[in-house]
Fold this protein.
Amino acid sequence: MPRSSELPAFVIVGGVSHTPIFFKALIAELEGRGYDAHAVSYPTVGKNTVGTKQKDEVKAVQNAVARYVDGQHQDVILLLHSYGGWPGSRAVIGFDKETRERQGKTNGIVEIVFLAAFLLPDNAPMAQYSYLPPWLTVRDGERIPNEQCVPLLFSDLEPADQRYWLTQFDWQRNDFEAETVPDAPWHLSMPKTYIVTTEDKTATPQFQLTMLQGVIDSTWTIKSLKAGHEPFLSQPANLVRVLLQPSSRCSSAYREWVVDFYAFASTELRRSSCRACLVVLGVSHEVLNVVISKCSATVGHERDLPTPLPLPYS
C-alpha cells in the first residue's frame, strides 16, 4: 500500500541491546497499512560506544523524530518498548505538537505509546526500577542478554526463533543508574497509551501497572495484548491491530482502581507470610486479566470498573 504523509509516522524505540532488525516485521506491517515507520539505532549499542550515555540515546530519538516533523512535515507517534521508555520519554519535551504549534510549527509528536515499557515519575532516580537481572551479562560497562533471558523475553516464540533472536542482541553501554528523568512528559496534555503484555514473564502485568500508577491521569489509555515481552516478534500483525485501535482515555474510576489496588496489594505483601504473598500475586493476576479484558472490550467507552476482589487466605 502506498504510504501517506497525512498519517502519522511511527518512531520505535527498543529495549536493551535491541537493534532495528528486531522491528523489521512490525515496520512491514505498519507500512502495509500506509504508515511510515522507523526503528531508532542506539548510539550506545554495538561498536565504538565508549563515552556514550543515555543523553546520546535521547538525541538519537529526537533526530529520528525531527526527520519526520521537520523534514517531511509529518506527525509522529512514539512507540517505546521496555527500556526504551526511559530515553524515549525524555525525548518528547520540545517535540510534542502542542509546544511546536506555539512556536509556529506545524507537526510534532501527537501520541506516546508504551509497550511493556518503563515509566518513572518526574525527577525519580532511574535506580528506582533499575536492577541487574541474571539474564544480563556485564562486561566493561556494557550489557547484553544471555541464555537465561530466553524463557523470559521469548516465552511465546518457537525454539528455533528463540535461538535466532538471542544471537541478534548486541552489547549496550548503560551508564545511567545515577541519572534521573527531569524531563518526563507526564504533564503534557497529549494522549498517552500503555499496552500491557499480559503473558509477559519479565515485566509482569503487575510490574507494568505498578509503574503506571505513579503517572496515570486522564490523558492515558490502557490497552492489552495477550503476548510475551516481544510481541513485535511473536505477533506483529496483532500488535499493529492493537496499536491502531481507537484510544479511550481512562475514566476516573479506572485510574483510582489502579492506584488503590496496588496500594492494597503492597500492604498485604508487607504484612503477610511468604505463602500468603503468593496468594496475593495469584489473585492480583486474575483480577488484572478481568479488568483489562473489560477495558479492551469497551474501547471508546468509559466504564466504571470493578473494585478489587477480597483476597482468600487459609
Strands lie at 9-13, 37-39, 76-81, 109-115, 136-139, 142-145, 172-173, 192-197, 220-225.
